[in-house]
């Protein structure tokens, strides 16, 4: 393993927060990464680009419910699909399957990222270390 958090093949490997335990872990610093129960989840395991973008949006907006309209706007801009709520629900289902049921909460009116210990975000874990 190198000091940059990648193994010799260049794949993302467990960092301190990732190795700490059960649940999902998301890294927003540097290269986006996700893990479930201490094991990295490859980007392809999270689904396509839209699913990863949705997960990033919920992580950035953690602590609040993101309304369905805002999600649709972020994912598709001015050209949403015919059934955006159904499309978002499908993306959420794939993410829940990959990361666990407690990672994304809510329903069609809006979604939010679950709270610790079901899901942890690197920025939240780093903040206490650098405070003061």
Describe the structure.
This protein has 132 residues and is of the alpha+beta class. The chain has a single domain, classed as Arc Repressor Mutant, subunit A. The chain is 41% helix and 18% strand. It has a 4-stranded mixed sheet.
Largest sheet: 4 strands, mixed
Q: Could you name the CATH class?
A: Mainly Alpha
Proportion of residues in β-strands: 15-25%
Secondary-structure element series? HEEEHHEHHEEEH
Uncertain segments: 1-17
List the total number of helices: 6
Averaging pLDDT over every residue, what do you get?
84
Provide the CATH architecture: Orthogonal Bundle
Radius of gyration: 15 Å
How many strand segments? 7
Share of residues in helices: 40-55%
- Relevant CATH superfamily: Winged helix-like DNA-binding domain superfamily/Winged helix DNA-binding domain
- Oligomeric state as shown: single chain
Structural class call reads alpha+beta
What is the count of distinct domains? 1
What's the overall geometry?
globular
Query: Order of strands in the sheet with the most strands?
Result: 3-2-1-7
| CATH topology title | Arc Repressor Mutant, subunit A
Q: Separation of termini?
A: 32 Å
Task: Please outline the helices and strands.
Elements: H1 16-19, E1 24-27, E2 33-36, E3 39-41, H2 43-46, H3 49-60, E4 66-67, H4 68-76, H5 84-99, E5 104-107, E6 110-113, E7 119-121, H6 122-130
Helix pairs in contact: 3-5
